[in-house]
Each structure stands twice: as C-alpha cells, then as structure tokens.
Task: inverse folding
C-alpha cells in the first residue's frame, strides 16, 4: 500500500498499482466459504461430482474471489495521509469471467480510475480491479470497486 497526500491524489488516477502476491485457493478455503455463505453447491464442495463436470474439479465461489479484494487491497491500496478510517463503498460493476479451479493461484491487478472529495475530508476512490488466474488468459473477475476514506 502506498500513502499519498490528498493534494497529490489526482496524480495517481490512471496509474497501474503494484500487483499483489499470488494466493493459492485451496479446498479448505472453498469449504469454509461455503459454510459461511450457506452455499454448498456441489461444484464447490464435492470433488468427486465436480470432477465429472467440464471444469474437472471443484471451483471457488465467484463471491469468494471477489471477497479476496479486501486482502489484496493491503498491497495495491492507496492510503491518504491523515486518513483515520476507510470503508468499502460498494461496486459500480462486477463481472465473473472465468472459474477459479481448486489449487489455482490468483492475484489482483488494480488501477486507480477516479478520485473525488465528496464532502470535506471524505474521499471516494474508484479502482478498476482484475483478479488474475495464474497461467490463464482470462481473469476470474473484473470489478469497479469504490472505497471511501475519511481524512482529518
């Protein structure tokens, strides 16, 4: 994560941010996500049945991949000097493009696409993010993610 002044924040719009480290998506993580979300569809949690599908194995929930943005943002994020709180503001767009098979490795690539001071000391940041799958041409997902930082 980089820290920037509120005055220099516009200079970072359009900048590709640091790619994150790769993260291995294991069956245990998929199973735990299924427990939390109560989404036990066989394609996620039954390796034997999932092996009979065109995917050939279990796949991660799309929302699991999306939820990893919170973790990945620790690397690609931008903190504004004096920020005392950051909140997830939501998404303008999310598209699940390719499945993440069990034991795949994923990472995030991000770009700051917009920033705006909505109210004094409240900065909305918009990131264009892709979750890449190692060795795959298509990303797992693409999203336009909004965050809000409160600056003293």
Result:
């Amino acid at each position: 994560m980089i820290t920037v002044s509120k005055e220099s924040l516009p200079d970072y719009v359009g900048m590709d941010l640091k790619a994150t480290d790769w993260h291995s998506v294991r069956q245990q993580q998929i199973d735990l996500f299924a427990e939390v979300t109560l989404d036990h569809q066989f394609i996620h949690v039954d390796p034997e049945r999932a092996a009979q599908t065109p995917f050939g194995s279990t796949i991660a929930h799309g929302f699991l991949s999306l939820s990893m943005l919170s973790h990945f943002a620790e690397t690609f994020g931008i903190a504004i000097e004096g920020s005392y709180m950051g909140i997830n503001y939501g998404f303008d767009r999310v598209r699940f493009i390719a499945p993440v098979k069990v034991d795949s490795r994923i990472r995030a690539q991000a770009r700051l696409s917009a920033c705006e001071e909505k109210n004094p000391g409240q900065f909305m940041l918009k990131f264009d993010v892709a979750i890449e799958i190692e060795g795959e041409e298509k990303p797992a997902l693409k999203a336009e993610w909004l965050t809000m930082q409160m600056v003293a």
